[in-house]
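Service request form, structural biology core

Requester: graduate student, group of Dr. S.
Request type: structure prediction, single chain
Budget code: on file
Notes: please return the result as structure tokens.

Sequence provided:
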Amino acid sequence: MTDATRPTDAELVDAARAALADAYVPYSEYRVGAALLTGDGEVYTGCNIENANYSNSLHAEEVAIADAVKHGHDTFERIAVSSGVRDGVTPCGMCRQTLAEFCDDDLVVLCDEGEEWAEYTLGELLPNTISLDTLDAAERAGEGPD
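Core staff response, request fulfilled:
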């Protein structure tokens, strides 16, 4: 895919906004949509899906990642996140760690603020992430599982 056919940041934010329509949020009424750009230029979207016990709820970013991985993708370039109130919502800690499983610190994270969006890198949002290297280092130091 050429740069000319890759979605722009504005198009990625628009895709996250469009995903809001599918959110299932009977408890919080706080809609979140995400649009994830794969390394080969495809876009996968997700929305939050709540559950009455909250801990079983799915986050928009997780849903987008799961759909992309299910379709054979494991490299990502950018993600846009939007809420129904356009408040600049960022991925939560759990979603940041899930993104870190597949992405380097330079993954671009676009957070919808309405007329504009804030731009971060995953490394800014989640410094010193837990990774395979972290776990390997702990095991080598004798701190891993027996």
